[in-house]
Specification:
By secondary structure, the chain is of the alpha/beta class. The protein contains 8 helices and 7 strands. The two termini are 36 Å apart.
């Protein structure tokens, strides 16, 4: 099965939570025998990019949504519906790879998928679309903006636009996966099928004797929590 992942960040060298989750999803799918192509529409702030699978776009000439900070993902979502750099990049990859399944990581690139379905580049009847949610983004963004002192009107407009994106993809997706049971309860009334909870996990690691000696030397017998 051919699977495309769409995200707003590269996963070449995964560091933050979203990158790590998307990267691990790709690893699991490959372990199941799937062919996976991970594509991103990324701001240039990241350090490592795939030379073919990551499109780097500047958002400097784009207005901040509702004049608020931390709006890069929503800027990308707005652009994705019509920007020819983004759509041309995706058309080229979809034509070469012919995906059977698209994982939309965090819903921001759903407008691009909608446009390409309308154009006939993607066949909605044959394509499986998976909404791979990492958070209830509308709630998370509202909290972030509130902590940065944004106005109530700006927060309301921003979070409502993000909620509309989430609802649109949830209602259209073949499947919805999320991180927690609380998130699943949020999405379940809008989803076509049961929402699947896929919690974040920990990759098994083996410490060599030198690393263990370093830990023992540091803790000196004291109880500790390692994050």
């Amino acid at each position: 099965m051919r699977v495309v992942q769409l995200a707003t960040y590269p996963i070449v060298n995964p560091m933050h939570g979203g990158q790590i989750r998307a990267s691990q999803i790709a690893n699991v799918l490959r372990g199941m025998g799937c062919q996976v192509r991970s594509l991103s529409i990324s701001p240039p702030a990241y350090e490592h990019f795939h030379p073919e699978n990551d499109l780097i776009i500047s958002l400097d000439d784009q207005p901040h949504p509702y004049e608020t900070p931390h709006g890069a993902e929503l800027q990308v979502a707005r652009l994705a519906a019509h920007d020819e750099r983004i759509l041309g990049f995706l058309r080229q990859h979809f034509a070469a790879f012919s995906p059977e399944v698209i994982f939309v990581e965090q819903m921001w690139l759903w407008p691009a998928v909608q446009t390409l379905i309308r154009e006939g580049v993607l066949d909605a009847k044959r394509l499986r679309v998976v909404y791979s949610s990492h958070n209830v983004e509308s709630a998370i963004k509202a909290d972030i903006l509130r902590n940065h002192g944004s106005s109530d009107a700006a927060i309301k407009g921003f979070s409502e636009e993000v909620a509309e994106l989430e609802a649109s993809l949830t209602q259209a997706a073949t499947d919805v996966i999320c991180v927690t049971s609380a998130d699943a309860a949020h999405f379940a009334p809008m989803a076509r099928r049961e929402v699947l909870v896929c919690p974040n996990g920990v990759a098994p690691r083996v410490l060599d004797s030198r690393a263990m000696n370093d830990v023992v030397s540091f803790t000196r017998g004291r109880p500790y929590v390692l994050f």
